[in-house]
Amino acid sequence: PVLRLLEAQLQDQRREHEEEMEALRNQVDLMQEELEKQQQAFLQTLQLSPEVQVEFGLQQEITRLTNENLDLKELLEKLEKNEKKLKKQLKIYMKKIQDFEASQTMVPVERRPHEQNMQVAVQRKEKDFQGMLEYYKEDEPLLIRNLIT
Known about the structure:
Elements: H1 2-45, H2 50-106, H3 140-148
Helix pairs in contact: 2-3
């Protein structure tokens, strides 16, 4: 189950990466078209008087910077959204790992013969238990279920 989950996540990330690459290719195409337009505008401005050329150049630069700022703002929002999503996923996976570790410590070895063939590389801290059980409040339902079974 954990391996399949990781494979699904990898496929999701691959699909997202391919979608991002397609979006970037489209963006490059748009930039090339914009460059061609700017080159044509530049050739036209060379035919104008020097004062008009300066003013036209300033207007073009202001427009370019405004568009660039809007693009950067959009990118920042997208990255912040992605960061929140990844943090949420990390919390979920950390919780699943804790649940998995808790279930592994609660199930006796002789009751999990299918897991003897798999080598699970999960490190646990060795503790000196003295009859008390320490657990997180959110792990309580899992603990009770494991105690009952």
